[in-house]
Amino acid sequence: MSEFVATITGIPSLSYVNARVGPGTNNGKVGKIDKGVSGLKVLAVEPDQLGKGFNGKTYQWFKLQTPLGPAWVRDDLITVQGDGGQFGYDNISTPTLAFDLKRGAPKAPAAPAAEPAKAASSSAAVLPPLPDEKPQQPAETKVPEQQKAPEAPPSPDDKAAAGSVPVATGKEYVAKRKGEPILISMAQNGSNARPGPGTASGNRVFKLPYKAQAKIIGVAKDPADKRFYWYQIEYKGQTGWVREDYQRLISGFEQFGVQAEDLYPAPTENTWWVRDYNYGDLFNSSVFEHWGWDLGGNIGEPIMCGPHGGTVIKAATCPACGSAGRSSVQAGFSVGDPRVWNDPNWNYGLGHFVIIRYDHDMLPDSTKNYLAQKGFSGAHIFTLYAHLSGFSVKAGDTLGPYDKFAKLGNSGNSSGPHLHLEIRAGTNREATWASIKNGLMTPAVLFLR
Ligand SMILES: [Zn+2]
């Protein structure tokens, strides 16, 4: 049997991955390991400490024998090969993305991990330099296969819930906001409701199905991973806590001091949550994960302008994507291939995209206040809608409230149909997208989750 080893594959936009002292992003960094480093012996495998995952599948973290010493790397950033029996994997004959593997019970007791005496600091010379120049484009999503083919079909109960709870949009949506505090689950495989605010609080109490409505009865931050609010909900006589990024807020939630009720609704009706903004409060050159939100959906799902209209700043056709809006993966590239990332014919990976400017005057008061606090007084918000299958506007067009101007797609550097939604603030109306990089902020500043 061959040794179970890993190769660092990473994400498209960075030349390295972060290796951590434990199995979760709540753990500190040991250092950075270059993409392409291979032959790293697997010492242990554990599920994500924070319970993070994609669409119901929890990330597994691999403790690897790295040039920095033993360190943990997440399973969507590595390929593995060899006999993984002692960690619950099969004998993998060809390098395979670890996230795509199914993990079962270990086939033999795990051998004690050999801890080398080598100190991490002694191998600093092998570290890649920090990139001076960050890419101008957002990181692209890695939509796992589960995204396209859920592990289990929804139960009849789920289907009934999904069918009976249409998501209101447009004026109807705004009118619904007052009153009862309500949310809708936007996790395609349902949201796990836990006994407390955080995955560490215990196993799931029940599952809130996709698009099922629940009443919000409390809000708290996860004591371990303080980035996220958790909502305490009531659903069919049960109570439990669900994480904010898997929900869409519908009405009455402002009383809990989370997002303001005056924000724009999400720009799509029938989508599901895939990936959160993960960067920090504002642009910060020392951290990089994902610059926007990814909303999964069916190709052709209409994308709407904000509730007070907007101005099209750029509407860019991706020559390599063609009229069918193909992805680079469909064209034979792997996700994040630098040839796509650096190619204007692929719109640098963004595919067909549209950028809309929402003038300061039309922004919600809560957004204006946020901008002022962050040193962006009077700034306009520019919103990028990427990976479209098509659009019906051109630069300079003025859009009315909730005008449908584009369709969700899979064009560019993408592994499954989704909308990448990204916002930047800028005071110059005619600013180019690249020039307002320092105005990058979470879409939650303008859009309701
Ligand atoms: Zn994205």
For the structure shown, list the relevant keywords:
SH3 type barrels, binds zinc ion, mainly beta, single chain, 3 domains, globular, 449 residues, six-stranded antiparallel sheet, 7% helix, eight-stranded antiparallel sheet
Task: Please describe what this structure looks like.
This protein is mainly β. The chain has three domains: about 5-105, no CATH class; about 180-260, Roll (SH3 type barrels), CATH 2.30.30; about 260-449, Glucose Permease (Domain IIA). About 5% of the residues lie in helices and about 30% in strands. It has five helices and 28 strands. It has helices at about 145-150, 155-165, 170-175, 340, 365-375; strands at about 5-10, 15-20, 30-35, 40-45, 55, 55-60, 60-65, 70-75, 80-85, 90-95, 180-185, 190-195, 205-210, 215-220, 230-235, 240-245, 245-250, 270-275, 295, 300-305, 310-315, 350-360, 380-390, 390, 400, 405, 420-425, 440. Strands 18, 19, 21, 22, 23, 25, 27 and 28 form an eight-stranded antiparallel sheet that branches. The longest helix is centred in the middle third of the chain and has 9 residues, at about 155-165. The radius of gyration is 22 Å and the shape is globular. The protein starts with a strand and ends in an 8-residue tail after the last strand. The structure holds zinc ion. Zinc ion (ZN) binds near residues 140, 141, 290 and 420.
